[in-house]
Amino acid sequence: MASYWSRYPLLGEQLDGVRALIERKLHIRNKSIEQAVVALNSAGGKYLRPAFFFLFEAFGDAARLDKEQLVTAAASLEVLHLATLVHDDVIDDSPLRRGQVTVQSRFGKDVAVYTGDLLFTIFFELLLESMPGSPYMNVNAKTMKKILLGELDQMSAYYRQDQTVRAYLRAAAGKTAALFKLASREGAYFGGADPETIRLAGHIGFYIGMAFQMIDDLLDYTEDSEMLNKPVLEDIGQGIYNLPLICALQKNPVAFRPYLDKKQAMTAADVQVVVALMKKESGLEEARQLATRFTQKAVAAIQQLPAHPSKAILLEITERLLKRSC
Amino acid sequence: MASYWSRYPLLGEQLDGVRALIERKLHIRNKSIEQAVVALNSAGGKYLRPAFFFLFEAFGDAARLDKEQLVTAAASLEVLHLATLVHDDVIDDSPLRRGQVTVQSRFGKDVAVYTGDLLFTIFFELLLESMPGSPYMNVNAKTMKKILLGELDQMSAYYRQDQTVRAYLRAAAGKTAALFKLASREGAYFGGADPETIRLAGHIGFYIGMAFQMIDDLLDYTEDSEMLNKPVLEDIGQGIYNLPLICALQKNPVAFRPYLDKKQAMTAADVQVVVALMKKESGLEEARQLATRFTQKAVAAIQQLPAHPSKAILLEITERLLKRSC
């Protein structure tokens, strides 16, 4: 994490504060689980959500702020993210996450389910510590619900060859963009920014979150699994079709059918054929175009923000996220 | 549910209100999951936690209360309970719960994980609707944490033949008694009861919750799986040793070792031997004694409550829970 933010020392310092707070919160009597979650927390996560929180928080009146309250609110965002990661790993059966053995492959699915639940309660605690009685408690509850409905949307699309880009966008809006939106809005709000900046922050966070999810999908195809630290491509056999494949499927469903119809029985060779077909039908280009469109929306909205050093940082980060390779 | 509370028409009516509210809250865009959760909600659950809420709420000043707020708070308790049930079923791999196919066996573990998470968010929503800014938000967060730490305690004891009754009590205090305690205290608090009654309510809820968990453990041995609607005894092969077995193990660990050491490889015959040994070492009697001790504590505390019709109902219910066969 430190290296990712090395160009922005103030932000790096704020995020170190967030990480230290989360580590304190993760102290529980079951030491082996504590160890696994602490490892996940400190292993390579970029702390993007707290970072957006602080970048937008900066648009407000810094003098009047309670720093500890801000760190606590920022930490709540990352803990909510960690909770969903732990449960995602249960579902994907992932052996690795951020180069670390996942909670579920180390301790079993059972422990991972409760560990994720425990992280949800720590999220809840951090909210109560940072914003008791605030209307943002409700915004947080609604966001958590959107995330889970997004995950359930994605699941109900498993193996569906007729799924649309529109349905994909709806699921991505929930499972990824909702939390970036919350982080950005909440930062602007607790920073004391004006209502127009808060509104813009929400839009920017949303667009960045959408682009982020699309790039994630593209990286499944363009990078090898070692760089991504997670098994790629096997998603297809598990019925999880991501954006490039959905784009290609919409154009030529008949070509894919003989392979995708095999579902779990797809061989590695079948998957390779599907990937080749996806490329032939310009799935990657279309997905990248869509990601670029959302990035452009984010950039346009960032440019509407009031003059502030955070503005340049936001533009740099947005560009870097679009070009990232992991 | 209706029949369980038929002797207490006012309470039955209040619980019907809770059930209707929960059903409304369960409307989500994924209809098949909605259906599964609605089925779980309406299938045979006794709504014990909301019932205790209302029984203690009655000790306050009924005239000044917002009925809808009370129903919402009572519903939050049941939804938290439902969330933990759905995740428990993932972990136990249970095919049935309350005679209904579980979410996980109908839709897979994946969906069940997110469905449980979604129920946690509905719990959170209900709290925000019923008690925004109240100190009971914190009490709820702490209780949720206790429940999960209790579940994790239980898991870290899997296959441990040296586990103590004390460790069992700690896990039971978290995973079961904490929520009964919350329901009772919260009812008294929002009913506007005096501080001493609120304190007593917490104690009573806790004792009843402990006794309830112990009886649950006893029922695993004394009833057949058809009556219990869940597979029993197989827990032993999965390393989950419940109270009667723990009591017996403490007395004569050597006798059990050759069988329990086989862990997952235990045959049905091995399990039968273990059960016979447990009975020989008076495991059932000791567990029942412990359950009786906690019930007596509950009864003694109930008797300290101010005079009120709820007092007699609490005594009846406590007795009925101890004698229950399912």
UniProtKB/TrEMBL annotation, chains A, B:
Its cofactor is Mg(2+). It comes from the Bacteria. It holds the Pfam family polyprenyl_synt. Keywords: Magnesium, Metal-binding, Transferase. One of its GO terms (molecular function) is metal ion binding. Belongs to the FPP/GGPP synthase family. The keyword Chloroplast does not apply. GO terms for biological process: isoprenoid biosynthetic process. This is Farnesyl pyrophosphate synthetase. InterPro entries: Isoprenoid_synthase_dom_sf, Polyprenyl_synt, Polyprenyl_synt_CS. The keyword Protein biosynthesis does not apply.
